[in-house]
Amino acid sequence: MKQKGGLQMKKTLAFILAGILMGAFMGLVGDARAASSIVVSVDTPPRTMDPHGSDADANLSVMANFFEGLMQRKGAEGKLVPALAERYEHPDLMTWKFYLRKGVKFHNGNPFTAEDVKFSFERLSNPDVSEFTTDGKNMASIDIVDDYTVVVKTKVPTPWFVNNMHQIYIMDKESTEARDQGDVGLKPIGTGAYRFVEWVKGSYLKMEANEDYWEGAPPLKNVELRPITESSTRFAALVSGQAEVASGVPVELYEKVVQNAKLEVVARPARRSIFLALGNKPGSPLADIRVRKAMYMAINEDEIIEKIMRGHAAPAAQIPDPPTIGYNGTLTRLPYDPEMAKKLLKDAGYEKGFEVTLSGPNDRYVQDEQIAEAVAKYLAKVGIKANLDVKPKSVFFPQVARGELEFYLIGWFDGTFDMGRTYFKLLHSRDAEKGFGGLNGTNFSDSEMDALLQSTANIADREKREKVLRDLNKMAMVDKIAVIPLHYQQDIYAIQKGKGISFTPRPDRWIVFKEISKE
After folding, report:
1. Total structural domains in the chain?
2. Could you tell me which of 115, 257, 276, 330 has the fewest CB atoms within 10 Å of its CB?
3. Under a CB-based contact definition with an 8 Å cutoff, are residues 60 and 196 in contact?
């Protein structure tokens, strides 16, 4: 009986020890799983899983995890480096030759070849599936030399062509042609660092690491993206631990985030400038440079930054930001001077003022509606009645694209880091056939600016072209007052402390998970 009791005790101890070991093992597994997974809350949801179906920043950001372009941008500076193309040549103004990376596979196992590049580029010009039609229609020919060499010729000189190749994503020709468009827009198949798992629109998007990724398997194995558009709800999700990283921290909640011991703030100057677009229809008040100058000088931008942006912005004197080709560091803002504004209006014959409609989105930029309201109040003080017409971005941006507005608030940064592309889109006279002025929502037109801008496309020497763009920038901002620049935003993120998260914000605000890790 004594032996039996001892045997039973040994069994009990062994069972307890096994339980302890199992618990420790499960704890290690849990720790490993936590270290290789992340939940990120974003302020704007993706619209589609079709990489050509939306050119919105929020969509491009998500697509960068599933798909790749011939080039990619990396790090805090957004340096352009090879991706699906190992290198390229630019033998003349309209020819680009790409040497493709060998051994890359799509998530379905299909090999990546020149056929996929040709198919993807040709698909861009189809408005039924693409919001990159201007890029597609600018390609005169796409010729396959062999399985890993492609030559693209553009219809007009396009100096920034390769600078845009990080956001022109390559799709698998075979599987895309075999599926209907509905399925293509729901289930992405790319070559990127992450494979698609599940998307419940408006709730979450799940992805898993591509262990066969050509750059090497990414450190995070499981990723969940949760779009939470309401800022206080997004903040609450972060505090409660439902999310570990949150983008788009609103300026009004900044102090709460800073004071919360569980959270850490990560911020960087944004590339996006906020400005006011102006029409110049002949015979209208806005056609007079004195009126444009008066409107500029009537706006107290320092007060906007202090009171509306709560210090989280920097004054702007132009549209492009410092890293962009064409940025002119000699430009300064016109001073806030309402008395001078009144004098200029009087000299222009508008001593009693005039009415104008000020449009803008109320759900796109940081404090966009509040800024528009402030601008209207400043203008009222010098006699200009600005009738506010702010609306959801889904209504506002189509109006911009159709050129239906006379005065509006908008934001911009150029993904190609090239002011020439910016001005062709925003300030060149509208020309649908040539694809110029597609986002010139006021129909602003100036032949002198158009001619100088067009001349830059034919300058092969980068330094010479950059000088001409700087001169053009000065002409637009000082001589013509083509727009009224306001400020550059600040990008603000919040991270849970103690999770060992290594995260560096990108200049394009994209969240690329292969660049994020956890200890």
Report:
1. 3
2. 330
3. no
Q: What is the CATH number of the domain that holds 335?
A: 3.10.105.10
Q: Are residues 485 and 509 in the same domain?
A: no
The range of the structural domain enclosing residue 20 comes to 2-35
Residues 96 and 227 in one domain: yes
Closest CA to 53 of 129, 125, 126: 129
Number of H helices, E strands in the chain: 16, 19
- What DSSP designation does 244 have? S
> 46 lies in a domain?
no
By C-alpha distance, which of 260, 253, 205, 258 is closest to 48? 205
> Quick one: 412 and 506 in the same domain?
no
Of 245, 356, 254, give the one whose Cα is nearest residue 295: 356
Return the pLDDT at 14. 57
Tokens of 465: 């072209």
Angstrom distances, CA of residue 423 to CA of 15, 287, 315: 74, 19, 20
Q: Are residues 139 and 8 in the same domain?
A: no
Res 2: pLDDT: 44
Q: Please state the length of the chain.
A: 519
Nearest to 325 by CA among 499, 514, 80: 80
**Residue in this structure with the two tokens 């010139």, named with its chain if needed:** 440
The whole-number pLDDT of residue 6 equals: 58
Give pLDDT, residue 129. Answer: 97
Q: What pLDDT does 1 receive?
A: 43
Residue 433: partners with Cβ closer than 8 Å, 6 or more residues away: none
**What pLDDT does residue 75 have?**
87
320 with 377, same domain? yes
Q: How far is 108 from 195, CA to CA, in rounded Å? A: 9
Q: What is the pTM of this model?
A: 0.90
Say which residues have a Cβ less than 8 Å from residue 414's Cβ, sequence separation at least 6. Answer: 320, 324, 421, 422
Element (H, E) at 274: strand 263-278
Backbone torsions φ then ψ of 308, nearest 5 degrees: -95, -45
Tell me the CA distances in angstroms from 263 to 10, 221, 240, 296, 494, one per residue in order: 48, 23, 11, 39, 6
Q: State whether 220 and 284 are in the same domain.
A: no
**Backbone φ, ψ for residue 178 (5° rounding):** -80, -15
φ, ψ (nearest 5 deg) of residue 285: -55, -35
Please identify every stretch of the chain with a pLDDT value under 70, giving residue numbers as ranges: 1-34
Please, what's the b/e burial string for 433-470 (b: 16 or more CB within 10 A of its CB; e: otherwise)?
ebbbbbbbbbebbbeebbebbbebbebeeeeebbebbb
pLDDT at 460: 83
pLDDT of residue 371: 98
